[in-house]
Amino acid sequence: MRYFTSEFLIERNKDRCINCGVCARQCSNEAHYIDLDTGEVKSDETKCVDCQRCVCLCPTNALMIIKNPNQTRDNANWSQQAIREVEMQASTGGILLSGMGTPKEYPVYWDKILLNASQVTNPSIDPLREPMETKTYLGAKPTQLEFDEEGNILTKLPPTVELDTPLMMSAMSFGSISLNAQKSLAMAAKECNTFFNTGEGGLHKELDQYADHAIVQVASGRFGVSKDYLNKGQIIEIKIGQGAKPGIGGHLPGEKVNVEVSQTRMIPEHSDAISPAPHHDIYSIEDLRQLIFSLKEVTRYKKPVAVKIAAVHNIAAIASGSVRAGADIIVIDGFRGGSGSTPTRLRDNVGIPIELALAAVDQRLRDESIRQNCSIVIAGSVRNSADVVKAIALGADACYIGSSALIAMGCHMCRTCMTGKCNWGIATQNPELTRRLNPEIQYKRVVNLLHAWNHEIQEMMGGMGINAIESLRGNRLMLRGIGLSEKELEILGIKHAGE
Amino acid sequence: MKVIDAKETYFKTLNDMVFDALETEDEVIIANVGGQRYIGTGMDAGKSIIVQGTPGNDMACYMNGGRITVKGNGQDAVGNTMNGGEIVIYGHSGDTVGYGMRDGRIFVQTNVGCRGGIHMKEFENCRPKIVIGGRAGAYLGEYMAGGVILLLGLNLKEGREVIGHYCATGMHGGVIYIRGEYSDDRISPGVAVLEPNEDDMKEISDLVRDYCKYFGSDYHEIMNERFTKLAPTSARPYKNLYARNEAFPLS
Ligand code: SF4
Ligand code: SF4
Known about the structure:
Bound molecules: iron/sulfur cluster
Number of domains of chain A: 2
Largest sheet of chain B: 11 strands, mixed
Number of strands of chain B: 12
Largest interface: A-B, 56 and 53 residues
Oligomer: heterodimer
CATH class of the largest domain in chain A: Alpha Beta
């Protein structure tokens, strides 16, 4: 017997529907079908995940997906979702898996921080007419420079990379997303002179041409990691943790490991790709140092090495240890960050918000006088350019965007990436579905997004009377809290609005 | 051939010297090695290093080809994420030998530490192999996704087991061959314990022959024992562990 019903209802406006069957062809969840007796299109709403694909493609706007009004009795404690999850586990006995970042109502500190603008003194700058620098350099910076008599720099400079904008594409592996999706990100990174990140799935040969804009990741499973791969990337990122699932590894199910994924990850077809929770050669900061330097050795000290850690309780101390271990870039991934597949309980309960983690790490590194030894990159739900400006003022050098870039390519946040049936051709390896995402079209949408954000960043900087992003970096005087407690303000290192 | 003296040389300086030497030479002998890390990192095919002394951790990481001979003991993470080539160690080796190794061969004359061959994997024509003359510590072949581990258990001290605890935990590919007796409770319940078939015996005998060639042991004496084969029962060990939340779970 069935213990629960569908979460959504599919409403088909019969006056508009022309029985063309587009919805039936588009829905990989088979929520629409053509009744062979009558030729009419019908729906089975129990299969719908509200990805909005059919709604967007219906030529007559006949479809609407609505929340099923059939509800259990109102209960502030036992929400509908809480009940469903218990029922689901009673039916399956399984660990609950979800896609994307947590939908729970945790505080979003970005929305409780307000930006400053110049009035009268230190006049604002109009970015349309005056130069406004958003160029960003990632990597360790020297503490001092020595010059010879001709003015040439004598100090050996650590390797850095240059971005035109403080925005990069978050790690999303080929396997968790389609090649077309990854390619779109790579093309956008190239056009905007920034970087995309291979994730832990290796670099597909078709993306070799974008290697100048690639960050190559090394995770515990070491998929696709070789001397060649490491030397192709411009930054090497050691993935210790991910904001959506701190403390656990990854697990790409065998059904997603097709020929192409297997070749890129360098593993057999259809076998599960398991990334263990820890790197088994890292049990301490000293061991992390060992891995960092093995990567520096194999790339002859020519590439910055980043360490990506999930924002957890002791993040400031962990970041400090990682910098001392030799990381040139610290990546902090907040707990609202996305994921192709994550145990629901971890996604919804483990980790801390990126805003607090960032403020704590930046402050700690300053207090210890090692802030210049690394750049800080943050990830974990950066939704718009204001989030970026606030992050930079809190101390970040750059932001990774993941979900926003996917939304630019059509993702509608249905949170079922783990099923591998993404109707938008993103989180799937099914050729029928990946075909729907044309990199030539989608990369432009990502480029549009980055350009628009960069303009907005310039506008906001101009408003503050700042003309170079370097002057905004760690400039917490530009921030004020709204409705925050003393403690929150203290951690964020900002004053309250009105102060 | 070039000889480099590693005495009291910082690892980075030493590796720069070795790297430069291998640009022009095919063989480099490093004398007086005392714990310097990363020797032979990313070395390519056609090159050879002879290490005299005790190399530090991560020797031969990301090694692509060629050969490293160690006249001494290896430390931790020998052949980490190795892609090809051969390592022969005249002594023992530390933890995580061959971590994530994808191809090539490692021969260790005596024992290895914990987590030997962890997450080894095979792919197309790549099939990594580790031969251990003595015994192995706990978690041998953990998460193993491919390749071969051959454990010979030679010269075991009275009362010592050839394998440590939790052998082959999470194994989902590849094979482990164990020579001689061992306690069943040391093997992870998720793997199949099998009799080696003809192909397996051929593979074992080829590796033993090479082991004897390198270390001068008696081939017949080694082969004159029972071998056991451990293999995964599934390439998808965690398949039924999950339920899809936020999608209708029964569809
Ligand atoms: S799953 Fe998506 S395509 Fe299918 S019916 Fe629901 S909204 Fe439409
Ligand atoms: S990537 Fe696809 S499956 Fe995942 S949330 Fe977006 S639309 Fe849904």
